[in-house]
Amino acid sequence: MKNTNLQFLKKGIWVYFILLIMEGGLRRWFLPSLATPLLIIRDPLAAYLLFTAYRFNFFPKYRFLPLLFWIGIISIFTALFFGHGNVFVALFGARILLIQFPMLCLIACIFDRSDVIEMGKVILWLSIPMAILISLQFYSPQSAWVNRGVGDELGGAGFSGANGYFRPPGTFSFISGTASFFGLVACFVFYFWLQPKYINKLVLISATLALLVAIPTSISRSLFFGTVISLLFFLVAKSSQPGFLKNMVQLLLGFLVLIIVVLSTDKFNTQIEAFTARFTSANEIEGGLDGVLIDRFLGGLVGAFIHIDDSHAFFGQGIGMGTNVGAQLLSGKTAFLISEGEWGRLIGESGMLFGTLIILVRISMTATISIQSFKFLRRGDALPWMLLSFGFINLLQAQWAQPTNLGFYVLIGGLILASLKKTELQKIKY
Predict the structure, then answer these.
(1) pLDDT tens across 183-200, in order?
(2) Per-residue model confidence as pLDDT tens digits over 135-192
């Protein structure tokens, strides 16, 4: 019976993953009339899985869960009495701490290493049609069916790119979903190049080619930088293996062949030119490469504690107010009412006390996972280390306010913790 219950919960996690990948497609193509409720389609599923896990005595017991749960409960009341005062906005914001973060812990509790590898294989399989889809979206007008917007919106789902081309959303509602998906593809591609015995070589080569196609086609700098980070993690992992130089020469030659195949397609040059133009223009606006990295990372961290409304410094302006849904309910339009940066949103919504506690939880969790992942790497197990290449920035400051980004945060956090479940480390309380 226990094994049957465990398998039921595993299937539920797979459904969560499928909904994460297909949520945008459901809202844009298949069920546009239900676009609004489908935005939170994973929340009732996660709540049901958590309730079922509790009944089956599989509920996760991580040390941060009670703290974040009570912060979520208290933040509902502080939002109503000291903040924006809208109960629906408060509940939408609190669901992150009450449902989605526990879902991350449930994935870590229920999944094991074999499940993580199996999901990695599926992700690589999915990357091939996804690369074809975003290529079709790239070259198609925004009025085409593949570019149809959320709720059957005829203006298109593409986001401004460069050279007259738009950043394609794939099966997601927005370009951030495409960037996150292929960021996850990148860490698994590099892992399977380290351990090719776990996957069909043709699938691995095809997924690698799909990633190379996706980087310029997405016109996403986030995906480019994320792939570079995964490559650096891969080099660190590869350097610890015997025959490093020989293997690196073989891999570099293989990648060179793939790049030549991609570049030999004349039409693909259009995607490269658009990506280059976007990269150049955006860097000029944001003050060059240093400005991009500092503003997007360190600037967001420091600015969160500097730019805060003094009248709401302690309790904040109310949980949920910094989300797009909260902005729509409170002001009637989609906007950043608090901060575009994640840490700024947390401090602005929940105040100095609770906002800082949430940030400290994210820092502590990221630090613990990073240390343990490196220990596993030194023992010859590169799986958590390569997952960390995508997860590190996400665990620190992925935007919880956006449901797709939140979904990838939950997924990668759960997968990394699940990959760390080995003998003496299983009892570590993250």
Answers:
(1) 999 999 999 999 999 999
(2) 999 888 888 888 887 876 766 666 666 666 788 999 998 888 999 999 999 999 999 9
